[in-house]
Specification:
Blueprint lengths: L1 H14 L2 H18 L3 E12 L2 E14 L4 E9 L7 E6 L6 E6 L4 E4 L27 E5 L4 E3 L2 E11 L1 H6 L4 E7 L5 E7 L5 E13 L2 E11 L4 E12 L10 H5 L3
Antiparallel strand pairs: 1-2, 1-14, 2-3, 3-4, 4-5, 5-6, 7-9, 8-9, 9-10, 10-11, 11-12, 12-13, 13-14
């Protein structure tokens, strides 16, 4: 009996630790696959709050597209006039650091953000530039945090911790994130953000999910800035899945094109 237990023990040890990391990565890969359409457009109403007081309302559009050599994300304000055509372009070609460009129409200034600048706040909101990036699976180490449990209005969510590795750890404003993936859709209905000291500083929470052309999308999300007691609410007004967005929309030239 003792020899049999000793023989089994190495197998049990081999199945712990790394297997958990592999499982977490596979879950994140599945979430990533199930979230990404070939291309899409989402129109938002953005509401900025100081505590519970509404201070600004804006309109913006986000475009995403998967291309042969990269994925592109374009975020552009469409109203009011004070911020109209302020835009952000993220080019993800699979390298350690994404190319992030911003355009300011008042100065006609197009600039490329240095790696660590992605920690900066985006246009007075509670989002930083890096909050618009996707999972960046190759740049993080993932770990499962227990079994699925209720979160927000959903009966089961799986918590996955993400810790930045190598170059991403140097330029990210977060030491780690925790994703709450709704069990049936694998959509991240909540994300917790921790600063370099390990303090929980922000939370992104989803009100509800809708299914559009087979893809789960939020009805509204709010980024809570816990330290500043502020929040930015993103209300989804329209979702278009696979409308056939041209690659030309994800270029520096397009970023400078005012609408």
């Amino acid at each position: 009996m003792t020899r049999r237990l000793l023989a089994v023990l190495p197998l049990l040890l081999a199945c712990s630790g790394p297997a958990s990391a592999d499982d977490a990565l596979s879950i994140m890969q599945d979430s990533d696959r199930r979230m990404k359409a070939q291309d899409e457009q989402i129109d938002y109403r953005m509401e900025l709050f100081e505590a519970d007081h509404l201070t600004f309302t804006r309109q913006l559009t986000r475009l995403d597209k998967r291309m042969s050599d990269r994925t592109g994300t374009l975020v552009r304000f469409t109203a009011p006039a004070a911020v109209k055509n302020v835009a952000l372009l993220i080019e993800d070609s699979g390298t350690a650091t994404n190319d992030i460009w911003s355009y300011t129409p008042s100065t006609k200034n197009l600039r490329r953000l240095a790696g660590s600048q992605k920690q900066n706040w985006f246009m007075g909101t509670d989002f930083t530039y890096e909050d618009f990036e996707d999972y960046k699976l190759a740049s993080y180490q993932f770990a499962s945090l227990g079994k699925p449990e209720p979160c927000l209005s959903w009966p089961a969510c799986r918590r996955i911790e993400a810790r930045a590795q190598t170059e991403e750890a140097r330029i990210s404003g977060y030491s780690r994130k925790v994703y709450y993936l709704e069990e049936s859709s694998r959509y991240p209905v909540q994300i917790d953000y921790f600063d370099a000291q390990g303090t929980l500083v922000k939370q992104l929470k989803t009100d509800g999910l809708q299914v559009v052309s087979g893809f789960s999308r939020p009805t509204a999300q709010t980024m809570f800035n816990l330290a500043a007691k502020k929040s930015t609410r993103m209300i989804v007004e329209k979702v278009s899945i696979n409308p056939g967005i041209a690659e030309a929309n994800f270029t520096q030239r397009a970023l400078r094109t005012e609408q």
